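Q: What would this chain look like folded?
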Amino acid sequence: MIRKLIRSAVFAGLGMVGLFLSYGAAVSAADDKLPDIGEIMKKGHAKTDGYLAKIGASAKAGKWEDAQTDAKSLVILGDALGKNKPPKGDAKSWEALSKKYSANTAAVLKAAEAKDAKGVSAALGAIGKSCGECHKSHK
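A: My prediction, written as C-alpha cells:
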C-alpha cells in the first residue's frame, strides 16, 4: 500500500516536472518571436514607460541594476529592428540606419554597465537624434 502511494507520488511529481518544462519551452518559443517595428518603437520609445525613459531615469537616480536590465532589453529590440522590413524606403538606407540604431543601443548598455551617467545620457541622446532621419526615409 505504501509502495503504491510512493509510486503514485513519484509519477505525479514527474508529470508536474514535465508540465513545467513544456510550459517553459512554450514561453521561450513565444519570447523568440521577432517584434515588429511598431512594437519596438512602443517598448523602446514610449514617453514614460519606454526603455529610453526608464534607463535615463534609473541612471540619473543611480539605480544601475535597473538601468542595466532595461538596457539589455533595449539591445534586444535594437538588434531586432534591422530584421524587419520598413514600410517604405531603400533597403540599403534601412540597413545602415538600423545598424546605427543597434550600435547606439549597445552604447547605452555599455555605459550602463560602466555606471557612467554621462555616457548613458549621451548614448540616449544619439538615439533620440536619429529618429527624424529614419522616420523621414522609412515611416
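The chain has a mean pLDDT of 85.
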